[in-house]
Amino acid sequence: MPIALYILVMAGVTYLIRMIPFTFFRKKIKSRFFRSFLYYIPYAVLTAMTIPAIFYSTENFITALAGTAVALILAFFDLPLIVVALSASLAAFLTGLFL
C-alpha cells in the first residue's frame, strides 16, 4: 500500500512542477536576466548531476580523471558525441588496466 501512495505523491509533484509555470507566467517574460537564467538552468542541473557521477563511477579516481580529460579534449575540438563518449570510456578502461 505505501508504494501506491508514493507513486501518487510523485505523480502529483511532477504535475505541479509542470503546471505552475503555465499558471503564473501567462505573458512573455521580458527580463533578459530571468530569460537567460531559465535558458541555462538545464545545463547547470545536468552538469551538477553528471560530474559527481563521473568521478564516482570507477573504483579509482585516476581512471575517472583520464576519461574526463579525454572527453574534455575531444569535446573541445567539436567531435561527435558518440566519438567523445566511446573514447572517454576506452581511456578510462585502458587506464584501469595499467594501474
Write the layout of secondary structure elements.
Blueprint: H1 2-24, H2 32-56, H3 61-76, H4 81-98
Helix pairs in contact: 3-4
How would you describe what is shown here?
There is one protein chain. This protein is flat. It has one domain (2-98). The protein contains 4 helices and no strands. It has helices spanning 2-24, 32-56, 61-76, 81-98. The N and C termini lie far apart (49 Å). Helices cover 83% and strands 0% of the residues. Helix 3 (61-76) runs antiparallel to helix 4. By secondary structure, it is an all-alpha fold. The model has no long low-confidence stretch (mean pLDDT 92).
* Overall shape: flat
Radius of gyration: 20 Å
Q: Total strand count, please? A: 0
Total of DSSP H or I helical runs spanning 4+ residues: 4
Low-confidence stretches: none
Number of domains: 1
Distance between the termini: 49 Å
Major sheet size, sense and barrel closure: none
Range of strand content:
under 5%
> Helical amount among residues, as a percent range?
over 70%
Q: Output the structural class.
A: mainly alpha
User: How do the SSEs run, as a string of H and E?
Assistant: HHHH
Average residue-wise pLDDT: 92
Entry keywords:
mainly alpha; flat
Summarize the structure.
With 99 residues, the chain is mainly α. 83% of the residues lie in helices and 0% in strands.
